Amino acid sequence: MSAPKSDLLQGTLDLLILQVAALGPLHGYAIAQRIQQVSKDALQVQQGSLYPALHRLEERGLLRAEWKTSETGREAKFYSLTRAGKKQLDVERGNWERLAQAIGLVLRTAE
Amino acid sequence: MRLLNALLRWRRRDAEIEKELRFHVDRQIASHMAAGASRAEAERRTRLEFGGLRQTREGVRDVRAGAWLEDAVRDVQFALRTYRRLPAFALASILTLALGIGVNTALFSTVRQVLLKTLPVQRPQELVAIDCRSGPGATGGGGTCLQSYPAFRIVVERHEGLTGVFAFSPVPNGIVVSTSSGREVITGQLTSANTFSVLGVLPEIGRLLVDDDDRSGAGPVAVLSHAYWLRAFGGSRDVVGQSLRLNTLPVEIVGILPRDFRGVTFGEPYDVFLPLGLADQFRSGPPSPSGAPTNILDTPFMGWLTFMGRRSAGLSDVEIAARLQPVFRRSVEAMIAPVALDVRRQLKLNADDIRVSVRPAALGAASNMRRTLEPTLRVLSLVSVIVLLIACANFAGLTFAQALKRRREFGLRLALGADRSRLLRQAFTESLVLSAIGGGLGWLAAQWIAPAGFGLAVGETGLRAVDLGADRWMLAFATALSTFAGLAVGLGSVLRASAANPHEALRNIGHTGYPTLGKALLTLQIALTVTMVGAATLFLQTLTNFRRVELGFDPERLITLRMDPGLASFDRARTAQYLQNAAAALAAVPGVQALTYSSRAMGNGVGINLTLDVPGLTGRDEDASSGVASVGPGFARTLGLALLAGRDLVDTDRDGSERVAVVNESFATHFVGTADVVGRTFTFRGPGNEPITIVGLVRDARDRGVKQPSQPVMYLPFAQRAERTVTFTVRAGGNVASLPATLRRTLEGVDPAVGVEQVSSVKAQIDDTLRRERLLAALGASFGGLALLLVAVGLHGMLNGMVVRRTAEIGVRLALGAPRARIAWMVSLETFWVVSVGLLLGLAGYDVASRLVRSQLFGVAPADPISAAWAALALLAVAGMAVWMPVRRAIRIEPTEALREEVV
Known about the structure:
Chain A has helices at 10-21, 28-38, 47-59, 83-110, and strands at 26-27, 63-69, 75-81. With 111 residues, chain A is of the alpha+beta class.
């Protein structure tokens, strides 16, 4: 409720999920929390789009899912990065950084 | 693979997704509560944040592979639930579709079996049928078939253009098999020993015929058909080597044919196949001039065989015919050579003008049954297409009416956020579900309809000739048809669904008249119904006309008893004695008014046409032939043939006495020109024939049945001919039910060697020849009646719905003083256009359809106006009845009640 929430494109949501999952197996709730935390509340993921994205990434083989007992004792589905996912993450990061650079250039010269 | 796995586990996965989302939701709630919110507040916030659990679930499901199939299954479940709520509609639709699809599938299966199925042999497309005829004058008389046994032997030696040639002919009149359990008459085919090797048929058990079996002096052998083997031997495997007594000749059974081989001619299933070398045991050659019997295998000019062969690679039919021509010509020349020159001149024997024609025979030899069935099948195809269109139109109309009623439901669903494409998919699925069920039922019904209908068309014996059981093609066809029906009709409801405007639908405003699409469907249905009813009337008239044909004799209470071929083994003296005894025995039975006998029953045809020489005959050679019937004394009297001059045949006209004949009017007109024929003589063409004196003249009768016009016929005394079969015809004094059985017993007691093959009546046999006409009339009437019923239901529904919707308006009009008659008129006007346009279109359709079926009509012209009038009348009557109730309802509306009633 503090900073204005940014609208996330579907491609960028995938990128964020992959990045967060790279740090170890997490369940969906934890992934959403982590994104929110790390971005200092600037990015709040709509749950309605989170789960379809998670399942889509799993379908594509970029994430691996496992049912494990969570920290609260209940069973939850944990997602972790596969090798293909790691590769895709690198590719996406590269794309994102190039894009950010390009936009930065444009903005600077426009001043 | 992923798809398959997904399919198998989707239910489990659904539970997993649920579990996963639940976990997240609970954690969210817990975190809100930890921040200080109450449980209710926490739940509300979480719901908002999550944005709809159901949609999320749908979103996840959409992402997984196999989602479309899950949706389809869900749609089907929804459709089934919907139909549980609307059982009448579902049932009506399913029945209509089952009828349309069932009839068409049955017909398709029959058409495939009758017209398209090739012989179950190796490479049937290589088979050809060979026809060899001589022009007029080449071997006496009009063009003759030259396919005799000597001719076959020559062709088998030098079959140019063919890799193999075989010949066959049925044993006329059947074979008597005497076993320990009694006697049975079976059908047999004489076929050359190389037949099965040329065809490429392998035995089920034992062996089939080999070349040695045809050689003279070879032991008599036989091959049994699969069906007969099951029937007579119970399918026992040690039948090979057993002996069978055929017409008192013992033959050894050497093998059994495979199940699907029923012979080479469609519609003629034979029980036993015998080598051609045995032909003289079952058929006699033409009588020689001295009267002694001849061996048919040695007779060069008797054409009794059918030739078939396998073409050599790369040759066309014309080329093969050209190559065979010199072979046949040489064979005829060789056959003519030993005949004396003057006899040659008299009989006009020469080897010119030999015509060989070769045509493809993948479907087998020329089949009588196929030829007679083909026009009927074509007509039935037309009828069943009309039935299917009516069924689809009806189904569409029903669906349409339902869709109208469900406008509110559609509108509500759209308003609640349903995807329009989802709604469309749902509507399509609903139609497909109904048509799948209807199609399944139709396919089941077809299994029963096809044999039943076919049996009606061809009778018991014909039914044995075909295998109309279920087959893959029938199933595929039924599936395709029901899918088509479902899609075509689904389109109608889809259009409706996509046009649903939620706002209008919810408030139930919008047009109160019946939408154009619905009216169009009803009009189409009416048009098709009129066409069908018109055609049915034509068929009924045809049947009636046939029944009214002047027979020329009195068919009442005429019982026929056909004797089995056991008579063939008698010599002439024994035959004469037998007939005398039998006639005496029958005459002694109480209730017998008159009796006679003949080679064939009246109405069942006459014997082969023989060429005559009549002194003073003017006319061409081809016209010099007449039908011949061998009859017993008192023939004309027993049958009620009007004797116009001279006398009937009597006892004293027997072997050795003067050769006499009774002729009919056509004979007199054709050969002599006047009715004054008694006393004149004629002679059969050929050497050594005695002149025959005409002693009586009778009126023309339908010897060949009601369908064949009368021809010149001579009735010769049975005792003066060598006939192998006899039928007794008895006129009963009254209608005694037990008489036929008594007569049968009496005849069987006369001589144990001759049994009764069939007891029938002349009337039944005449009716039998009208099988197909009866079938068409029955089908036409039933379908026409059904179609009219459906039209009545459709019109009633349409008008009733309209009255209900416009109740308020009618109430207002009545309150304002409109006369009730005017209301009635206003309401009926709705149907006026539908019925009149439908009627006009239907009459046009009737015009076209009747021309297509003209081959099946008798006594009525296509586009017969009287039939058209009947059809129109039937429609108007039905429409009137259907409309009457809603109109009555409209008139009876109480204005005050109508206005008070709020149409919600």
